[in-house]
Amino acid sequence: MISVAAQAAAPIPADVRTNGFALGTQSYTFRLFTFEEACEKSAAAGLHTTELFPGQKVSAALPNEKTGPGVSPEGLEAIKAILKKNNLQAVAVGVIGIPVDEEAARKVFAFAKELGIGVINTESTNAIDTIEKMVKEFDIKVGYHNHPRRPNDENYKVWDPNYILELTKGRDARIGSCADMGHWTNSGLSAADAIRLLKDRVVSSHIKDIAKGGTSVVPAGTGRANLSEALKALKEVGFEGPISIEHEANWDNNVQDVVTYVDLVKSFGK
């Protein structure tokens, strides 16, 4: 049972940022490994923040424990110890479903609160009324994450920043977009333009580059996602939230690919 009365969401201080950006890893980048191994790889890439994804095995020592709201007190303490050991701050969790049922949704927010996480990334648009209540109760932001457009599924709308604007209109300011730059690129959109459209509704971001002439993920700066322009747009709209490197390629050995994103962000504006 996770206690609701947990620590407040920890701010993202300057000393864990990269060239002013709260750059870290989305642990899904290291989905073939345990959370402990993922944190070691994040640290090896020179990063100090991370976004958890639900369902990752916590460690080899706790093979039955997985990251997410269902983790036991022992597993939760192990997650905290792993983060501390690797000098990492948990800043987000996702992409995770948030139920319409308030008590079930509360478990997701309580898990985030226990780790001092400030943003939950989801695609649960049907639960927005519940989400708004939880956002106010826990003071945790929620970002609607976009996967690529699905031409054969007209009901999948979160790829469209205009839909997110309409969805969040009049809602609590802590509800907005988890701006996935690469997925917008694969939807035929400019990530920078989408960010400028959403403005302060961008509460978090996933960064990935996309192959020229293709849809696969490639090292930063070698593709067509125009990541530098997207970073410029984030600065323009006053974004201070987490940016998670989600490198969905070279799964077995991609730390050096992750480093290309670190280097790109370090060189931004210079």
Known CATH architecture: Alpha-Beta Barrel
CATH class: Alpha Beta
SS content category = alpha/beta
Q: Poorly predicted ranges (pLDDT <50, ≥5 residues)? A: 1-6
Percent of residues in helices comes to 25-40%
Q: Over the alpha carbons, how many angstroms does the gyration radius reach?
A: 17 Å
- Give the overall average pLDDT: 96
Q: Tell me, what's the shape?
A: globular
Order of helices and strands: EHEEEHEHEHEHEHHEEEHEH
Number of helices: 9
Q: Tell me the major beta sheet.
A: 8 strands, parallel, barrel
Distance between the termini: 48 Å
Spatial strand order of the main sheet? 1-2-5-6-7-8-9-12
Explain the layout of strands and helices.
Layout lengths: L21 E5 L8 H10 L4 E4 L4 E3 L2 E5 L6 H13 L3 E5 L8 H13 L4 E4 L5 H11 L2 E5 L15 H8 L6 E6 H5 L5 H8 L3 E6 L1 E2 L6 E2 L8 H10 L5 E4 L9 H13 L3
Parallel strand pairs: 1-2, 1-12, 2-5, 5-6, 6-7, 7-8, 8-9, 9-12
Antiparallel strand pairs: 3-4, 10-11
Helix pairs in contact: 3-4, 5-7, 7-8
How would you describe this structure to a colleague?
With 270 residues, this protein is an alpha/beta fold. It has a single domain (14-267), classed as Alpha-Beta Barrel (TIM Barrel), CATH 3.20.20. Helix content is 34%, strand content 19%. The protein has nine helices and twelve strands. The strands form three sheets. Strands 1-2-5-6-7-8-9-12 form an eight-stranded parallel barrel, surrounded by five helices. The chain has a two-stranded antiparallel ribbon with strand order 3-4. α7 (191-198) runs parallel beside α8 (227-236). The longest helix has 13 residues, at 73-85. The chain is globular, with a radius of gyration of 17 Å. Mean pLDDT is 96; it is low at 1-6.
